[in-house]
Design goal:
The chain is an alpha/beta fold. It is built from 6 helices and 8 strands. It is globular and about 40 Å long. The strands form 2 sheets. It has a 6-stranded mixed beta sheet with strand order 1-8-7-4-5-6, covered by helices on one side. Strands 2-3 form a two-stranded antiparallel sheet. It folds into 2 domains: 32 residues; 167 residues, Glutaredoxin, CATH 3.40.30. α4 links the parallel β5 and β6.
Length: 203
């Protein structure tokens, strides 16, 4: 570009306009992800070594999403995931008609047995219109000993997280209620790789 072009006001206007647009775009992108969220998402999304074996299909959330405040049932009372704040939580949606779900439940039971406590809980929610009584019958048939029965008979929670059409769905939340990521489909949650993934989320 020859020097005489820079003497024309129109060229300077275009240059300054482009620089201004780039700056505004930078501000918008920077503001959309807070430094804290960016650091958390970056740290988790780069730990690809955890996504092997049974956890190969686990997908990290970016940016982390907050847990829905939709209520579900436990022992005939309503509760939300905020009741588990301070613990990492693996939420699993299952149903009595879902064969992969029933196959997966014993491994979730083993995970709760091994890691459940003050820092972690498996919250297996029966997303089933047949209700909690029928769901409990299936847990009894499978000899589930460590999982508590949670139910979402109206499927409100399942629809909110986008998992009502495809079950099972498992979502891992950190102790602050932020979604770390999710796995759609059956997995062996008693496997070493599943345990490593869950342990990475513990507070």
């Amino acid at each position: 570009m020859s020097l005489h072009l820079f003497k024309q006001p129109r060229i300077w206007l275009l240059l300054w306009g482009g620089a201004g647009a780039a700056f505004i775009l930078y501000v918008i992108v920077s503001a959309s992800v807070s430094p804290k969220e960016a650091a958390t998402a970056s740290a988790l999304s780069h730990d690809q070594s955890l996504l092997t074996g049974e956890m190969a299909d686990f997908a990290y959330a970016f940016p982390p999403r907050g847990a829905p405040s939709i209520a579900f049932l436990h022992e005939d009372r309503q509760m939300t995931l905020s009741d588990f704040r301070g613990k990492a939580v693996l939420v699993n949606f299952w149903a009595t008609w879902c064969a992969p779900c029933l196959k997966e439940l014993p491994s979730l039971d083993a995970l709760e047995r091994d890691l459940g406590g003050g820092k972690f809980a498996v919250v297996a929610i029966a997303a089933d219109p047949r209700g909690p009584k029928v769901a409990q019958q299936f847990l009894d048939r499978l000899n589930i000993e460590h999982l508590k029965l949670y139910a979402d008979p109206d499927l409100r929670f399942a629809f909110a997280i986008g998992g009502a059409d495809i079950l099972p769905v498992s979502i891992l939340y950190d102790a602050k209620g932020q979604e770390i990521g999710r796995l759609v489909g059956e997995a062996d949650w008693s496997s070493p790789e599943a345990r490593r993934l869950v342990e990475s989320a513990l507070p």
